[in-house]
């Protein structure tokens, strides 16, 4: 009999990223949920430890347990999905005869999605995008005018504007341009990856390989201005460096100590320069900001500009920018062009934006009936 906890690491390795499957957000999140699941089974009155003992009734009880934790319906479904995926993997490995997590009696306690379909997820509207970009433009212009007094503020304002424009108009994923703590291969976008003259950037795509993404015209000026203001000492610098003070402090201490500078000398450098200015002046490469920090930047900007949303989020999320870009591309260029720009299959794009096609079909039906009615469809009685 195969113990459930004995093969969890194999599942996580199969699902992980990197050469040895030791990284990735999915691996980290699935590991947490499987630990919770194993703990639940161990505490069960019948104590379930092997796959032979596991049945759909146990999954039903676990589904009830998740539903009673006070989490949102989406969170409950997400957490249960990790367990279902593990059970499906166990079937393929020969540990289970069927995916007991997908039996109807097991999934019944899981809250449904409330009927949310295509078009219900956050997508930045034209008004949201214009309001946010106008605000970061004003912030950057003011900071640039005062750069002689506070260069750090100018760099940060231009960095934030470049990030907002890149997300707004290019359709890139946040994890493709920012550092992912859970995936060692995703270290953020570097200047050597940005080709402004040819209007594209090279990113590590979701399909686990490098891919070129177009930089639309609105993105170019913010990036060009920011590149000039930052004045990075080399192309091997992150486009969106972290401004987290403890992180920069550790980075500077390690980098400068390795070059022979004493603690006193390093401390003296801070008397008239900010941490990012010292990094630039001594070519100490800081890490890229994380995806979490990127979300924090967007939340701060939305709070400052006063953007009010009417969904489950209280600020504009990075994925909302991508969906907003997708909305524009599908409406103006069609599903195929949107799929190429968003690095998705046309099938996925059609599914995610089916509400647009439904609206267009409704318009066609309206026109068709109006034409028939105008021609006269009188009764023959």
Number of continuous helical runs: 17
Task: Tell me the number of structural domains.
Answer: 4
Distance between the termini: 78 Å
Largest sheet: 3 strands, antiparallel
Strand content: under 5%
CATH class category name of the largest domain: Mainly Alpha
CATH topology of the largest domain: hpI Integrase, Chain A
Strands, count: 3
Task: Identify the CATH homologous superfamily of the largest domain.
Answer: Intergrase catalytic core
Could you give a quick summary of the protein structure above?
Helix content is 56%, strand content 3%. The chain contains 17 helices and 3 strands. It is globular and about 70 Å long.
Task: Outline the structure in words.
The protein has 381 residues and is mostly helical. It folds into 4 domains: 8-107, no CATH class; 121-238 and 294-323, Orthogonal Bundle (hpI Integrase, Chain A), CATH 1.10.443; 243-286; 324-368, no CATH class. It has 17 helices and 3 strands. The protein has helices spanning 8-15, 25-42, 56-67, 73-92, 104-107, 126-145, 151-170, 174-177, 217-230, 245-257, 263-269, 275-281, 291-305, 318-333, 335-342, 346-352, 354-375, and strands spanning 194-195, 200-204, 210-214. Strands 1-2-3 form a 3-stranded antiparallel β-sheet, with no helix packed on it. Helix 2 packs across helix 4 (73-92). The longest helix is centred in the C-terminal third of the chain and has 22 residues, at 354-375.
